[in-house]
Amino acid sequence: MITDSHQYLTYEEFGRAFFEIAVSEARVRAAVASIAGEPFEVGPMAQGPARSRR
């Protein structure tokens, strides 16, 4: 049974609200500070459609 006590959100509304909470200035600063001055590696990264050419 569904009651009217819940507010339904679109995916866009949920995403925007989540982003505003999860990606705060304090969290971004903390993440950058934790890796600042430390070497890090990225890669290799897969590109293109997987197994499209045989």
TrEMBL record:
Report the superkingdom from the record. Bacteria
The protein's name: Uncharacterized protein
- Which species expresses this protein natively? Mycobacteroides abscessus 21
